[in-house]
């Protein structure tokens, strides 16, 4: 229900309802009318929207592509651990893997003059880049690296090269890659290049890599692995762009009767919970998403502080690449 509908039912203006909800000055008569309608309808005001309308300069926006992800939850823990100590309110936006929704959140958060925004980036479109260049509030992007905005990102290419080297080191030479859409430069393009780097180092031909692109779910990982197997190609080593995709790929391999790691070694990227709950446990490369969130929040606070102390000026852009760690388990 909208404020305008409450106003119409109470016989008052929308401005009066807004003042009532925000604790503003309003006559007792109007208060009673509005209160009566709210009680009758069970209307619950949107707290986040109220915070935005109040143009809180003590609020920071955090936009993520989806919420059902280890990487997102770990990043949010890192962001929250820093911002909770700083006195800032966090306003959370779940874009649902919708680039237009992502841009809508960015514009809205600027329009209401939030102190700054952290964006967990996936696909950075030309519209994103224009926004970064023209933004009047500080922005930090996590998970992607682009020269037009401050970024905290992972060494995706070397991380995937590491897991591929490990699999090749176990004698696996007939490789497949279940990857992500390559418009996502970090997870899609860079991780695929990392696999090919390791193959070249080992004297294998990158052109021989059988690969497919999927989205970031278990079902998609299974679909991608099935697509490879149904083409007639049976790999002895499979590298996946994420742990979640790897869980799906392992499921498909088992359903086709292959043993892991007896017939096929499988490796993932991420180091989250998904790889620990499947059997055999997934060998992976851990990326430090919580640290990414912490560093993004610390950087954003520095940018906010500088802009307040130096009106009209901005800190130079910062690009920080984080490391990784190979975790050896039973799937390789």
3D architecture notes:
The chain is elongated, with a radius of gyration of 24 Å. The model has no long low-confidence stretch (mean pLDDT 90). α1 (3-10) crosses α3, α8 runs parallel beside α9 (185-201) and α10 crosses α11 (243-255). It has helices at 3-10, 14-21, 28-41, 47-53, 70-83, 99-111, 126-134, 156-169, 185-201, 218-230, 243-255, 274-277, 289-309, and strands spanning 59-64, 89-94, 116-120, 139-142, 150-154, 175-180, 210-214, 237-240, 265-270, 283-287, 319-322, 324-327. The strands form two sheets. It has a six-stranded parallel sheet, sandwiched between helices. β3, α7 (126-134) and β4 (139-142) form a beta-alpha-beta unit. By secondary structure, it is α/β, with parallel strands linked by helices. 44% of the residues are buried.
């Amino acid at each position: 229900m909208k404020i305008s509908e409450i106003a119409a039912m109470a016989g008052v203006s929308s401005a009066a309802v807004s003042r009532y909800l925000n604790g503003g000055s309003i006559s007792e008569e109007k208060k009673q009318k509005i209160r009566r309608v709210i009680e009758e309808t069970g209307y619950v005001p949107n707290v986040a929207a109220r915070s935005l309308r109040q143009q809180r300069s003590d609020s920071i926006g955090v936009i993520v592509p989806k919420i059902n992800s280890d990487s997102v939850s770990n990043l949010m823990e890192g962001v929250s651990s820093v911002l909770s100590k700083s006195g800032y309110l966090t306003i959370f936006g779940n874009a649902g893997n919708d680039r237009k929704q992502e841009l809508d959140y960015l514009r809205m958060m600027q329009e209401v003059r939030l102190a700054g925004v952290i964006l967990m980036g996936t696909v950075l479109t030309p519209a994103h880049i224009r926004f970064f260049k023209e933004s009047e509030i500080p922005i930090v992007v996590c998970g992607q690296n682009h020269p037009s905005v401050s970024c905290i990102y992972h060494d995706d290419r070397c991380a995937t090269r590491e897991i591929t080297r490990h699999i090749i080191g176990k004698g696996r030479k007939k490789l497949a890659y279940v990857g992500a859409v390559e418009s996502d430069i970090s997870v899609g393009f860079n991780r695929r290049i990392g696999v090919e780097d390791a193959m070249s180092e080992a004297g294998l031909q990158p052109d021989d890599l059988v690969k497919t692109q999927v989205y970031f779910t278990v079902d998609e990982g299974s679909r991608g692995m099935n697509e490879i197997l149904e083409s007639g190609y049976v790999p002895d080593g499979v590298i996946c762009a994420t742990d979640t995709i790897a869980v799906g790929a392992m499921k498909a391999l088992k359903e086709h009767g292959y043993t892991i790691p007896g017939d096929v070694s499988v490796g993932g990227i991420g180091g989250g919970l998904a790889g620990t709950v499947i059997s055999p446990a997934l060998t992976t490369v851990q990326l430090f998403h919580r640290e990414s969130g912490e560093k993004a929040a610390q950087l954003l606070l520095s940018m906010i502080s500088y802009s307040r102390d130096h009106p009209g000026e901005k800190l130079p852009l910062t690009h920080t690449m984080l490391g990784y760690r190979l975790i050896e388990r039973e799937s390789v």
